[in-house]
Amino acid sequence: MSDTTQPSGMASMDHTDMDNTENGSMREQEGVVRVSPATVQNIGVRTAEVPVEPLRRTIRTTGQFKMDERGMRTVSLKVGGWVETLHADYEGAIVKKGEPLLELYSPELVATQEEYLLALRNARRMEGSSDAKRLVEATRRRLDHWDLTESQIEEIEARGEPKRTVTFHAPTSGEVMHKNVTEGQRIEPGRALMDIADISTVWLIADVNQQDLPWIEEGMPVRIRLVSDPGETQEGQVDHIYHMLDTETRTAKVRITLPGGHRTLRKPGAYATVYLEARPTEATPVVPSEAVVSNGEREVVIQALGDGRFRPRPVMTGLETGGRVQILDGLSGGEQIVTSAQFLIDSEARLEGAMSMMMGDM
């Protein structure tokens, strides 16, 4: 890389000839601008060689822990009645799958148990009767549809009489949330009584800026630092990228699934700092971002040809990070390009081109 001192003033650009023309004047070859050494010194032109290498990026953002929605279960009954005993009687209670949640007195359940026992007795008396067997199957199916377990139905058969209350059990393990029932309350079929959240896993939802989305992919590694545990770093990976973009913040959400647990610091509502480790790009020519001149329609870099000669090179840029940008087309690597004062050289090149066109029309 070459360097110059800070300019004390701006000198004019000098354009010397390279090719003879018909009228004997000399003109620099097309697209090339010659700048005198004094001007190069004064405007502080710096150059650097274009390397070919991959880009690497770590994106830092903030995430919030949430319940794993896939582990949420709403508890509701398919039969109405009165809650005589509520075992899961407060929010935050930890239950295991199969544990009792509540005991229900239901006139419908009592009547159906009586029908089932009567059908069993008739089937025994009328051994071999297909109608009696169908009646037993129909009443047993009704009990099954109301979520009585196989062991509960067998217990009714063994007792020979209906149970006044029936116990309903937790459909999954987890933490009781949004409890909407109390002991002694009459409930209707289908009413949401409580939610049970599986706390064995949690989601960490992080916001990623729109310009960083090209770096994000499912499966990419993640480092996490908890606000409540600043000395520890945990690891995970992105398992889902949400499709919708927030129109106000211009961010998209990514999801990281992590182990949970009742005593873990990864609690829903807590915040964490998230570091997304993007996979290195393929090796391409890479230039400093400030070396690219753009007017909204075209992008160019200024190539230094030596002996004070410079030429604008149209390029196509790619991903950008850390003040460096990929060049997807226009450079092959190894070229010397201008990294400072390129706007002045580019303006001079445009002016020279316009003047050449005007002179050619005269």
Automatic annotation (TrEMBL):
Domain of life of the source: Bacteria
Record bears the keyword DNA repair: no
Domain CusB-like beta-barrel: 201-278
SUPFAM superfamilies: HlyD-like secretion proteins (SSF111369)
Ranges where the record places region Disordered: 1-33
Keywords: Transport
Annotated ranges, domain CzcB-like C-terminal circularly permuted SH3-like: 287-345
Pfam families: 3HB_CusB, Beta-barrel_RND_2, BSH_CusB, CzcB_C
GO terms for MF: transition metal ion binding; transmembrane transporter activity
An annotated GO BP: plasma membrane copper ion transport
A single cellular component GO annotation: outer membrane-bounded periplasmic space
Residue intervals of the CusB-like barrel-sandwich hybrid domain: 73-197
Residues covered by the CusB-like three alpha-helical bundle domain: 108-163
Cross-referenced InterPro entries: 3HB_CusB, Beta-barrel_RND_2, BSH_CusB, CzcB_C, MFP_Cation_Efflux, RND_pump_MFP
Similarity comment text for this entry: Belongs to the membrane fusion protein (MFP) (TC 8.A.1) family.
NCBIfam families the record matches: RND_mfp
Annotated protein name in UniProt: RND family efflux transporter MFP subunit
Organism in which the protein naturally occurs: Salinibacter ruber
